[in-house]
Amino acid sequence: MNLDNLNKEQKEAATYTEGPLLILAGAGSGKTATMTHRIAYLINQGVSPYSILAVTFTNKAAGEMRNRVEKLVGPCPGMWIMTFHAMSLRILREHYYAAGYDKNFVVYDTVDQKTIIKNIIKAQNIDSKQYPQGYLSAVISKEKEADSDPEHFLETKGENPKTKVIYNVYCEYQRQLKSNNAMDFDDLLVNALHVLRDNPDILAQYQNRFRYIMVDEYQDTNHIQYEIIRMMAQAHQNICVVGDDDQCIYQWRGADIRNILDFEKDFPKAKVVKLEQNYRSSGNILAAAHSVIKNNRGRKTKKLWTEAESGAPIVYKRCDSDKEEAYYIAQEIDILSNNRSYDDFAVLYRTNAQSRLFEDALKRRHIPYQILSGFSFYERKETKDIICYMRLVVNPADDLALKRIINEPKRGMGPTTLGKLEALAKVNNQSLFDTLGQEDVVCSLPAKASKYVKEMMDVLKLCQQEKDNLRISDIYDNLLVKTGYMKALEDENTLEAEGRIENLLDFKSFIYDFEEEKDNAGEKATLEEFLERVATDSDTDKYDDKAGKVTLMTMHSAKGLEFPVVFMPGMEDGLFPGHRALDREDGIEEERRLCYVGMTRAKEKLFLTSASYRVLYGQGDYTRESTFLRELDKSLLDEAGDTIYEPSRRTANRLGVDTGSLDGFSENPPFRPFSYDPLKYAKQAVKDSAAGSGIDFMQGDQVTHGKFGHGIVVDVDAKTVTVAFDEGGTKKLAKGIAPLKKV
Ligand code: ATP
Ligand code: MG
Q1: For the chain, what is the radius of gyration of the CA atoms?
Q2: pLDDT value, residue 134
Q3: 560 C-alpha vs ligand 2 centroid, how far in Å?
Q4: pLDDT digits (tens, 9 = 90+) for 112-121
Q5: Which of the residue ranges 199-208, 402-411, 492-501 would you say has the lowest mean pLDDT?
Q6: Beta bridge partner(s), residue 371
Q7: Domains in the chain and their CATH numbers?
Q8: What ligand 1 atom has the least distance to the C-alpha of 561?
Q9: Between 280 and 683, whose confidence is greater?
């Protein structure tokens, strides 16, 4: 293996394998690249991939790192490259009993969390003005991040009417999660920590296994994450952490910058390597970022240098309004894209609320974009509904999921009927699913509900039973069609419903991707694992760097990524740095680090913009230029910038088509790219697949199966077909759902 493309310090870090190591370096200095080479080097030295653990900040970063390592040294089965959450989940799957859970526990996301807390507010008659759901969720999450349970919370905060309310909600929230056999995001970390801490034998198992542990983006680990890693590294002490104190941007979520500053204290023999050469950005961009970050006091002084040329000056533009700012940026992209791919551009903003105007402006110019917003596609109503169906296939105890979908589509299960059912389940100490599974209970429902709920239960039971015989996409199609979900949307026959169907089909391509990824890795794609992926994916994981699209995302999500051209809009006091940052002692320093992260994403060109007038959350106001702009070294600015922008009177759009309008805005697209209707086509495919097979099979029939391939029918009865497959043995499959075709 060749380490020659690393510089001296990078090589030193990559080959220093025994004992604790801290790689402390600035943005774009090749930290992630060095860590990747270090893993490859270890394997090349004969270390088994099985004994390597590498923690990254997103699933996507993990996937990329694995790809690069495998390109260098070939396939690495058994190596753990993943996020802290995914790692915790893995540990908990292996030792669920030690955490006090059942095997098939599920992970709840923020939407589920919201629903539960809202229900508790109602049930406990809490004044939601005084204690809004968002507030309660945040407090609970914060406590969990500090590994503090309800009792500990009450003890440390003291008992008063307010803490008592929070205490009660926190207790009930945990109780419900537990009874639904579910964990929320914070629980993953807390429970993993407890399992390792309270079970020396389990801890020893991981300590022995992972002889080499590495953590990227170490500056953003929180206390629990740090504890998990520290414990696991105790036996071998081969821990390498990689980070940049200037890029710590998650303190508000419990990240503890001291983790990085104190690493040398926890591991006194730690070797420290500093990387100071930046390979990403032009000289001007680097100097600009430095002129801002140097105003922070709590940092280890370091200065990056680069061999790259100074490059283009930084462009600053003050626009009259936020709308004009969006117009300006779209226009610049339009011009620059003449000799660049759209992938080259990123618009990095402070809050998701800023994104809409950019979407509008880009749409008008027919510039393709991808938006990574907090409101992710998993949180869309329809995706969420179908995920709940899938969750019930895996974990029937999931009352929250059942309650969500029992009347989606409408099955005559109104709140009163549901209330009665819940009461019954409580008395019998059963899950809703099990309660509904009783014949007499279903029959006692009002006529319409009785019929439709029974149908729904039958589909779910069938999927549960056949789960391991079906591909995830088959299960998906069956749920979508046989529960009546898709039909209900079709019957609505509105544009909105059509949009929802589109989203559901979009989600299916995501399932396909997952199946393909697993196929390529030679692994089985299980529904359980898929749901885990869904629950632990972050925004950045949906970022596609080869989509041929401009990327819109928050600066937080952009961590670790790089783009040739970066726009940073909204450089205004109150927005960036944000108002709330000013209330906290360290607030402005954290915002400044975020500004540094944003600027150092740029390789060749950096644009900063602000608007004199901005509307945010419905409130309009005049603004003042950001503190960070004032700190910026003005000699780096483009002299042509910073003037009032005048919209041009263009009459042609980007394609050179005259649109007849003065500003080039209100144009009709000159052609339609699709001569067929792709939506209709995809819808039919879902239905076909869910239709299973109504054909009557006979002994001796040659068949193919969506998952198991070719085989011969050896037995048939009223409900099942038994097939001997060429590979994978003999399987008994349920008629009507098994994706079987006669050859
Ligand atoms: P960040 O702080 O943003 O996470 P980083 O320190 O992890 O950045 P990388 O992303 O690893 O930096 O590297 C930044 C860029 O520099 C990448 O495009 C990488 O390919 C390139 N690079 C790193 N090391 C070298 C090198 N020795 N020679 C040439 N290019 C390099
Ligand atoms: Mg990095």
Answers
A1: 28
A2: 85
A3: 4
A4: 888 899 999 9
A5: 492-501
A6: 552
A7: 8-96+190-275 (3.40.50.300), 108-180 (1.10.10.160), 283-376+543-649 (3.40.50.300), 378-536 (1.10.486.10), 695-742 (2.30.30.140)
A8: 3
A9: 280
